């Protein structure tokens, strides 16, 4: 059959519509590294004496002036507001990066629950104090120390098990809930911080499964990376993130984790 001089079966086909991942495209376009964004600046690492924290300090020292706070080195206690406030008053403003590497899966000998029947109020309270309220206090007292102009970043260690959408196994109720609370705290704080610091990136980061004395008994058959490998992965991701990513929850590959 002819239609306007053209055989209907030979009509030109519509070109497929390509839907671009704008965020990924933007990162590819900029090709920026962590050193490009933050190199030469100052960094503050909370929990700098831990496995991941110590490895981050070593990695950041290659391109930044790094300061650390930890309970073992200088008595810094993230779960006590007076301690956080006192240390904040002693620090000189102007950090480009603040990284909260605190947190624990097992606190005072209480490991993660395998069922709801194992929930203990004191153990759950301790999980929230360290893994959620502590980072909230850090945001409250330390984000005013970030540079007021130009790129800056506040990141906190979270965990994939804090994802509600990704939870298919159950268990670990207190730890999961505390990390989910942390993610909400980070997301909400990012919205507020962006009003005064539009170039800021505030994110929760999942480092992957990392080898340490504390996690050894929980690794099972899961592949795990060393703390230096985890630190390198995190630095790579932080270098790729832009203000449009603020408030997000990302894994060690830079992929978004569902809430």
From TrEMBL:
A Gene Ontology term for the protein's cellular component: cytoplasm
Short name of any one Pfam family annotated for the protein: adh_short
InterPro entries (alphabetical): Fungal_SecMetab_SDRs, NAD(P)-bd_dom_sf, SDR_fam
Gene Ontology molecular functions: oxidoreductase activity
PANTHER family, A to Z: NAD(P)-BINDING ROSSMANN-FOLD SUPERFAMILY PROTEIN, SHORT-CHAIN DEHYDROGENASE/REDUCTASE
Protein's recorded name: C-factor
Organism expressing this protein natively: Pontivivens insulae
Name of the gene this protein is made from: csgA_1
